[in-house]
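WARN retry 2 of 3 for item q-0093 after timeout on previous attempt; input resubmitted unchanged.
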Amino acid sequence: LVVNYHCTPHKFNSNLEYQIKFFKKFYTNTSNNKLLDINKLNHKSKKPFLIITFDDGLRSNYDNALPILKKYGFSGWFFICPKFINNSSLTTLNKHSIFPKQIYGDNRYCMNKSELLTLLNSNYVGSHTFSHFRFNPQDSVHKINNEIVDSKVSLEKELNFKINSFAWVGGEEDHYTDKANKIISKNYSIVFTTLVKSIYSKVNHKNIPRTNIENTFSKEMFLFQISGILDLVYIFKRKRVSRILNK
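OK item q-0093 returned
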């Protein structure tokens, strides 16, 4: 199972701890190497693998989610937009369709370089485009390269860390474009979508579906989201998008 979160406001920390504690009981942590080798893996554990991802690089993930992950022995996969590392005011983020749910008096809403470097001690950092960009069929190659290639280069330079994973922005079907997919596939070895499905052996590493969860969810909503019912709801959308991503 691969899940993704966005903002993790502190007022819902008890919900998040319930969710991570649940995962600890029924799943086992997945490292970067385990995911890359999953097609060869002789998995003898009784618990299935779990990957916990966070989109947008929000400061609330560092302040609230990271301590809970550490408490229960999970690694987080944090997908960052480098444009916001040094410029993450609420106004700036809202212009790029990012809407934090926790207020910070100093008006800094994304993780800074120091916090990202701390993450790398036991977690993973990937690209979420340069500026939280949803791709469209009419995008120029220059714009696509800026969002995909420049994002990778910028993060690697800033963090001195090899970036090999990418998460698409938005789950809307129209934003999974062939032009963007070709450039993403050339530059990243692991690519995540939000197409809702558990993954198995022989997974395509350039098309790994995730299930969206938020710490604002009630226990009932959380359990529904991971129940597998949504796998069926998304089946036709997943097939249509996969025709593009599996080329």
